[in-house]
Amino acid sequence: MNYRQLGNSGLIVSELSLGAMTFGKWDFGGFKGTLDLKEATQVTNKAMENGINFFDTADMYGGGESERILGKTLEGKRQDAIIATKISFRAGNQPFNAGVGTKHLIQQVELSLKNLNTDYIDVLLLHNDDPITPIEETLKTLENLVNNGKVRHIGFSNYQAWKASTMLQYQKDHNYTPFVASQMHYSILNREVENEIVPMSLHHKVGMMVWSPLSSGFLSGKYTKENPAPQDGRLNSFDLGLFDRELGYKVIEKLQILTQKYNTNIIAISLAWLLAKKVVSSVIIGVSKLEQLDANLQAIGLELSKEDIQMIDELTKPPLVYPNTFSLIQDQALAKAKWF
Predict the structure, then answer these.
(1) How confident is the model at residue 192 (pLDDT cuts 50, 70, 90)?
(2) Which residues, other chains included, contact 146 with Cβ-Cβ below 8 Å and sequence gap of 6+?
(3) What are the Cα distances from residue 10, in Å, to 5, 121, 174, 207?
(4) What pLDDT shows up at residue 6?
(5) How far is CA 268 from the centre of its chain?
(6) pTM of the prediction?
């Protein structure tokens, strides 16, 4: 296993992290947990045996069931684990039981600590923005949680670049603990973060934790034109529509060729492509079966050639959107003089 600095922090995390979204038996509109405590413990133990030290969950997964099971799987091993959890989505019937306001954040942090059976959260991420809470309120609350020792590092997930950048500048201006991590969707089939989030993150030294690196399992290779809805496929019950399936089938064909070259599987190729991106600190892998973990672990130590990375880049290159289109007509003498 290789390890990386999580953004501009002192945390050293495994480049593959284990997502606990599948821990527990629950169903939220097709968004499912599938592993009971025994199965989740087997997955966690095998992950740690292979060098994974970073675990991700959220208060919304199964109404806290994912957190509770993760906490149990890490009993006696807490000192060897780095835990990230996320807060924002609705957790109760009262109007204030959602978002990133003071009441909800404090209430859910206390509950997450209890669920995880721990005294502190290594990385707390804002799971989503809300439409009303001022950034001043959110950031002051996060700073208090850090100062109280309940949270050690903070980050954001699914935020727009302008909002995250504004919050980072506010933290800098007020000498607050800054965001060191983001958790964003990024995959060969969806590279929208490259337009704004990636350059913003590199500028502010925010390390990206990648969710759904396999596009909800499509990049496992089991989805084909002949069998677009394989048995037990996650996309059959929960599809966010984050990628073009026709492009996906073409990508699978190209990646299949690379599996022969590198003697591995499509999953490993897809993860290795992400790990070649400078902004990525860790890629979150989620599994519903132990054998799926084995397939993901093949990405450990796999390095694609520059030529193969470039080939994949060209195959799935996202269109530039304004004002990024103007980068194409920037002064070339200045561009050539750039040294970093």
Answers:
(1) very high
(2) 152, 154, 177
(3) 7, 15, 21, 12
(4) 98
(5) 17
(6) 0.93
Spatial neighbors of 228 by CB under 8 A, at least 6 apart, are 245
Supply the CATH number for residue 47's domain.
3.20.20.100
For residue 228, cis peptide bond before it (omega within 30 degrees of 0): no
Q: How far is the C-alpha of 123 from the C-alpha of 182, rounded, in Å?
A: 10
> What's the domain range around 188?
3-321
16-59 pLDDT, tens digit each: 999 999 999 988 777 778 899 999 999 999 999 999 999 999 99
Tell me whether residue 339 is in a domain: no
Rounded distance, CA 203 to CA 206, Å? Answer: 8
H-helix segments, 4-64: 37-49
Catalytic one of 3, 61, 120, 249: 61
Is 61 part of the annotated catalytic residue set? yes
Backbone angles phi, psi at 28, to 5 degrees: -120, 85
The residue type at 105: L
In a domain, 340, yes or no: no
Q: Is residue 335 part of a domain?
A: no
The verdict on residue 327 lying in a domain is: no
Distance (Å, whole) CA 209 – CA 126: 13
Give the number of domains in the chain: 1
Task: Count CA atoms closer than 13 A to 113's CA, side-chain side.
Answer: 15
pLDDT value, residue 32: 79
CA distance 261 to 2: 22
Q: What tens digit of pLDDT does each residue of 221-235 get?
A: 787 777 766 777 676
